[in-house]
Amino acid sequence: MCVELLTYADLGARLHISREAARSLARRRRLPRSRSEDGKALLSVDLPELRCTPRPRRGRADPIDASLAQIEAVKIEAFKAEVARLEAVATAYRAVFERERERADRLAVELTQAAAETTAANAWAALLEDEVAVLRNGRHAGGAIAGQAARRLGHLAAAIVEADRATRR
Asked: Torsion over CA of 22, 27, 30 and 35, rounded to 10 degrees?
């Protein structure tokens, strides 16, 4: 049993508690006190027998802090709900965007095909106009107009059929 004379500050330092907590502990345990020459209180303490385990500080519950915490929790939940709603809207817009992009790609392919068909039709039209011009201006002497015209008309009909088949493909 090793009894030491300590001040409240020294006792608090040894037990890792505040000076006020050391004073409260001395009152609860009814430790013997005396005064030193400088007027400070001295405690007679047997440290191994004391066995003090400090508790964490508990603050008093402030109703304003509690209500502010509840308000913050409600705000956080509202923000989370808003984020979830915006994510759902963004997902819906993304789906619409993907659908429209696929539609635009299909239209671009169709437009390219239509442009190619138009170019081919214009080439055939120019060829047919040349054939018609030859038929109008191709009169030969000696009555060969009828035979040559028939051949030209046959070629013209074949060209029209071929152009029709090409446009159906």
From this structure: 70
Residues 6+ apart with CB under 8 A from 31: 25, 43, 44, 45
Distance (Å, whole) CA 2 – CA 40: 22
Q: How much is the pTM?
A: 0.39
Q: Which residues make Cβ contacts (< 8 Å) with residue 156, sequence separation at least 6?
A: 128, 131, 132, 135
Task: Give Dmax (Cα) for the chain.
Answer: 157
Least Cα distance to 31 among 13, 7, 15, 53 occurs for 7
Residue type, 129: E
- Give pLDDT tens digits for 13-30: 888 888 998 899 889 888
Q: What are the E-state strand segments in 31-121? A: 33-35, 41-46
List the beta bridge partners of residue 23. none
Q: pLDDT digit string (tens) for 32-41?
A: 898 888 888 8
The rounded distance, in Å, linking the Cα atoms of 30 and 70 is 43
